[in-house]
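Appendix B, example 12.
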Amino acid sequence: MAMAMASEKQKGRGKGKGALRAVRRWVFERHRFCCCLPVRVGVIVMSLANLLVSGLLSVICWWEVAANRTLDAGERGAFVGAGLVETLLALLSILGFVGAVVRKQSFVTAYCYALYAHFLVNLAVASYFLYVILHAEHAAATRACEDAIEDAGAQGQCLGLLRFAAGIYGGLAGGLLALELYGAFMATRYVHQVKHEKRKMKARAEGLPLHVRGASDGGDGDGVGLMGGYVRYTDENGESWYDRVGAPLKDEVGEEDARAHRGGLADGYYGEGGGGGEWTPRREDVSGAEEYASAYRDRDGVVAEDAPEHEHARAQDGLGDNPSVVPAKTRSRSREGASSDEEEGPAEPLLPAPSSEAHPPAYGRDGSGPR
C-alpha cells in the first residue's frame, strides 16, 4: 500500500514537472515573436523601436532640465531620473539591436535585463500616479467640482468625467505595461534560441548525440537539438560515454547520484512522464556473451523507426549490467571473449548493427540520413 502511494506521488510529481516544462517551453522557447514573425526579426524591430522612443524621451527630459528654469528641486529630480532611465534604455537597445543582428548572446541578454528593469520602473511610476489620481487629486477635484458647480446634476457629471479620465489612464497604463512585458518575454525567448544554437554548434564540434526536434518538445519541427535524455560520464580509461537511463534523475538528485541509477529504473518511470516516453529493456544470451539492447518510441522527438539508428544502446565487452550505454568515440561491435560456438555464424542482434564508421551526430528532418 505504501509503495503504491509512493509510486502515485512520484507519478504526480512527474506530471506536474512535465506541465511546468511544457509551459516554460511554450513561453520562452518557441521560435515565433507573434503570428508568423520569427522571434529574431521581432527582437530586431522591437529593439529599434525602443531605441527611437527612449531616445526621444531622453532628449525631451534633458531639454526640460536644461531649458526650464522654473522647476523646483523635486520636479528637476524627477526629470533627471527619467532622463537617466531612458538614456540607459536607449544605449542597451542599441546593444540589443546589434546582438539580434549578429546573434550575440551576451548583448541580447543585457538588453533583456534592461527591458525587465524598465518594466519594473514603469510599473512603480504608473502605480504611483494611479494612486495620486484616485486619492489625493481625486479628493481635490471633488472639492473643486462641488465649489465651482452648485447644481447637483452638474456636480455628478463633473465627478463622472473625473472617474472616466482615471479609468482611461489605468487602461492605457495597463496596456502599455502588458506590451512591455510581452517584449521582455520575447527577448528572453530569443536568448534561449541563441543559447540553443550555440549548444548545437558545440555539440557538432564535440560529437555529442543530437536529435531531431519536433513540435512535441517545444520546437517547430525544423531544428536539431541536443539529445536531452543523456548523462555524460567518463570511465577509468578516459573514454566518454552517454547514459540515457540515469538522465531523467539528473535534475532531481544531481549528475553524480544519477550515474548510480544507470540501468536501475523501472519501465513505468519513463512511461509516466519521467522520461517523456516508453522505454523497454531487453536482454538476451548470445553464445555465452550477454548483450543488451533497448528500444523506445517518441523520446525527445525521435520516432520509433529512427530510434535504433540513433542509439545502438547496448552493453558488452566488460561494460557491466548497463543496458543503455552509448560510446562517444567508438561504435564497433567487437565480440572478443565470446565462446567458440559463435564461430558458426553471427547471432542476430536485437537492434541493427552500426557501421564501422563514426556515427554522424545529426539527421535530416525526415530521418533518411545524416546531413
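The chain has a mean pLDDT of 63. The beta strands are 32-34, 37-38, 210-213, 223-226, 231-234, 240-243, 278-286, 289-297, 325-327.
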